[in-house]
Design goal:
The protein has 426 residues and is α+β, with helices and mostly antiparallel strands. Helix 6 crosses helix 9 and helix 6 packs across helix 12. Strand 3 and strand 4 form a beta hairpin. Among the domains are: 110 residues, Alpha-Beta Plaits (2-Layer Sandwich), CATH 3.30.70; 96 residues, Chitinase A, domain 3, CATH 3.10.50. 47% of the residues lie in helices and 18% in strands.
Length: 426
């Protein structure tokens, strides 16, 4: 195989590839085995037609597309490695020659990783975050723990207030007709959480147990379900229960319930130590993030649109995974927040651009400084993952090798190592 690379634009080039006749012949053989299984030729059982008879009836050309589909992915992958380019998007392929007894020639227009022009990345100054634990910090943490240990008490004699949880049945109608996804039974809705369509929760404030109400709302103009966007809707709501948080008293009993300590003073002292450790970690993380931001601002890079799109896809998938761990999914999230997937992607655009640029800059610094991940460091990464997933490092390595993710782990470790490097030099 012969592969040549020619740059035609800043981040785009053309890969010209020629493959010898032997590999073309092998691909045609594989293509015939594939189509032979389903070929219907009178006088022969399915899967038993001889090659010579098949080609006489259908022509060898009938195998070309299957053969190209078999050969192209592996050859393209080899050509990319030979030309030492890093594609960031699917190529535009133009087949110039393919046939029995011929070489296979094609051109691939490829978008590649951009060149990064580094600015200053050493000796910079960034504002340090404070790691001091104030009385306000301690009180806020105690309040958070109070909220976590609060009991939901059923309220019979009072009406619903913001912050209460209303257990409701609801059925939605548009133009007098019920619509899909507009029904729920004994749904627990925290009032003021803004998790439903704007205006819905506000209209439940003041209702009591057993009350009924027609809640009138209007779907947002850019609602993800186009047939509902901008439409007025009526939800028939019944309130089954109202629940209100009852916070525990901050005393020695609370300390015993929330910790291993017998007195509130001991618990607060330990909590302050924990907060100090956490704030120090957060301050260091904030310093590293600020340094990366500064270094990235000093660099110049023209990012291909495809890289931004790929990062947005990763961000959407990551959000969906987080939502699923909470018993939701991306579709439910969009329904409840009144957004479309396009709205969500637009919100992620700026962050995606920032992440891609930061990573490209860090990769370039690693090259400039000759940074790499040693086998010992990789083993430590695997050990850490093993502890997190309660498996051995060897098991984790085997899994990552099987699904082709070991290099991804190495790259992530190198990015973190590079961040540490620039943090130490600024």
């Amino acid at each position: 195989m012969k592969a040549t690379w020619e740059k035609i634009e800043k981040n785009v080039g053309v890969l010209e590839v020629e493959v010898n006749e032997d590999r073309v012949k092998n691909a045609l053989d594989l293509a015939f085995k594939k189509v032979q299984k389903r070929a219907n030729v009178p006088g022969f059982r399915k899967g038993k037609v001889p090659r010579q008879i098949f080609e006489a009836k259908y022509g060898v050309e009938s195998l070309y597309q299957d053969a190209i589909d078999i050969l192209l992915p592996e050859v393209y992958s080899e050509a990319v490695k030979e030309a030492n380019v890093q594609p960031v998007d699917q190529p535009e392929v133009d087949v110039e020659q393919f046939g029995k007894g011929q070489t296979f020639k094609f051109k691939a227009k490829v978008t590649v990783k951009p060149e990064v022009k580094l600015g200053e990345y050493k000796g910079l100054k960034v504002e340090a975050a404070s790691a001091e634990v104030t009385e306000e910090d301690l009180n806020a943490e105690l309040e958070r723990l109070q909220q976590r240990h609060a009991e939901l008490i059923i309220v019979d004699e009072d009406t619903a207030k913001n912050g209460d949880t209303a257990v409701i049945d609801f059925e939605g109608f548009v133009d007098g007709e019920p619509f899909e996804g507009g029904t729920g039974e004994r749904y627990s809705l925290e009032l003021g959480s803004n998790s439903f369509i704007p205006g819905f929760e506000d209209q439940l404030v003041g209702l009591g147990t057993g009350d009924f109400k027609d809640v009138e709302v209007t779907f947002p103009e850019h609602y993800h379900a186009e047939h509902l966007a901008g439409k007025a809707a009526t939800f028939k709501v019944k309130v089954h229960e109202i629940k209100r948080k009852q916070l525990p008293v901050l005393d020695d009993e609370f300390a015993k319930d929330a910790s291993e300590f017998d007195t509130l003073d001991e618990f607060k002292a330990d909590l302050k130590t924990q907060l100090q450790t956490r704030k120090e970690r957060e301050a260091e993380a904030a310093r590293e993030a600020a340094v990366v931001e500064k270094v990235s601002e000093n660099a110049e890079v023209e990012i291909p649109h495809a890289m931004i799109e790929t990062e947005i896809q990763h961000m959407v998938k990551d959000l969906d995974n987080r939502l699923r761990s909470q018993g939701m999914n991306i579709d439910m999230f969009l329904t409840l927040s009144g957004q479309t997937i396009a709205d969500l992607r637009e919100q992620m655009q700026q962050e995606a651009n920032k992440r891609v640029k930061n990573n490209l800059v860090l990769e370039q610094i690693a090259k400039e400084e000759g940074l790499s991940i040693t086998e010992e460091e990789l083993s430590q990464e695997l050990e850490n993952m093993g502890q997190a997933y309660q498996r051995s490092a060897e098991e984790i390595r085997t899994i990552l090798e099987k699904n082709g993710s070991l290099d991804n782990l190495r790259e992530e470790a190198l990015l973190r190592k590079t961040i540490k490097f620039i943090a130490e030099n600024n």
